[in-house]
C-alpha cells in the first residue's frame, strides 16, 4: 500500500516538472511571437495553455484523492499540500505566458514591442524561461543551492523591469501611449512569471529544510502532528 | 473529537471572513489614499498588510494541522483544501491593495491619478471593495445566487478597465507617459483584485454544489474516496 502511495506521490512530482516544462516553453515561444510579430506562434501558445490547465486539474484531483485515501501526516502531508500550491503557481505562470501571446495577437500585424526595446524584452523573456527551467530542476533535484540561486536571477529580472520603466519615463520616448501601456503590462507579466518560478523553488526549500526561504512560503511544518 | 474538529473548521471559516474584511477595507483605504494624495493613509495600508499575511500563515498552519490530526475525507477534506486556496486568494488581494497604496506613496506629493480619471478609479475601487464584501458574505451564508452575482459585478469592473484603456489611448490624453504607466498598473491591480474576490466566491459554489462555477475552480470532488 505504501509503495503505491509513493508511486503516486512521485507521479505528482513528475506532473509538476511537466507543467514547469510546458510553462517555460510557453514563455519562450510567447516572447518569440511578440518580438517576431508571429501570429501563428502566438495562437499556438494561446491554445497550448489548455493543456497546462488540464494538467493542473488532473494533478489536483490526484493530490486530493491521495489525501483522502492515504491520509498522510508530517512530511508526506507537507509534500502533497505544497504540490497543490506549486501547481497553482505553474498554472498562473501559464496564464501570464498566454497574456504575452494575446498581446502579440491583439497588435498584429503591428509590433507590440518597439525595436529599441527588443533586446530588453528578449532578455526578460530568456531570464523568465531560464528561471522556470531552474525551478523544474529544483523540483527534480531538490538542490537547495540552486533554489536560492533563483532569487539572484529574479533580481536580474527586477533590474530589467526597472530599466524598462526608466526607458518609458524618458523624455525621449517616442512610441506613444498605446505602446507605453503595452510595454508596461508586458514588463508586469514577465515580473510576475518570474515571481511564480521563484515561489516554486522556495516551496521546495521549505519541503526539504522545513524552513521558509522567506515569507512567500507560509505553512509551518506539522511534524509529529 | 468530531465537535472539536468542527469547531476548528468553523474557526478557519471565521479567519477567512476576517481576512476578506481586512482586504476589502485595505482596497477602500488604498483608493482613498491615492485619490486624496494622503501619504499617512497610504502608509497605514502598507503597514496593515502584515496583519493579513499573519492571518494567512496562521490559517494555513491550522488547516494543515487539521488535515494531519483529523484526516478528513470527502466534503470535509474539500472544505479544508478549498480554505487553503481561498486564503491564498485573499492574501494576494491584500498585496494588490498594498500595491495601490505604494503607488500613492511613490508619487507623493504628486497625485498618481489625474483629475479626469478620479471618477473611474473611484468606481473601480468601490466595486472592488463591494466585491470583496460580497465574497465575505458568500463565505458566511453560502448563498449561491449571491456568489453568481459577483460575476456580474466583475463584468462591471472589466468595462471600467476597458474604458480606462480607451481613455489612455485617446489622442487627447495629456498627462504624459508616467501617468499612463501608473494608470495602466492601477487598472490591472483593481482587475486582479476583483478576479480574486470572484475566485473566492466560486470556490464556495464548488464546495456547496460540487460543481465548478467555471474553470477557475479546478479540483474535483472526492466523494466516497
UniProtKB/TrEMBL annotation, chains A, B:
Q: Where in the cell is it found?
A: Cytoplasm
Its keywords, alphabetically, are: Cytoplasm, Phosphate transport, Transport
Q: Where is the PhoU domain?
A: 16-103, 121-204
| Keyword flag Transport | yes
Query: Pfam families per the record?
Result: PhoU (PF01895)
Q: Does the keyword Transmembrane helix apply?
A: no
What Gene3D superfamilies is this protein classified in? Phosphate transport system protein phou homolog 2, domain 2
Q: Which SUPFAM superfamilies match?
A: PhoU-like
Name the family the entry cites: Belongs to the PhoU family.
Q: What NCBIfam families is this protein classified in?
A: phoU_full
Protein function: Plays a role in the regulation of phosphate uptake.
Its quaternary organisation is:
Homodimer.
Please state what the protein is called: Phosphate-specific transport system accessory protein PhoU
Source organism per UniProt: Streptomyces pactum
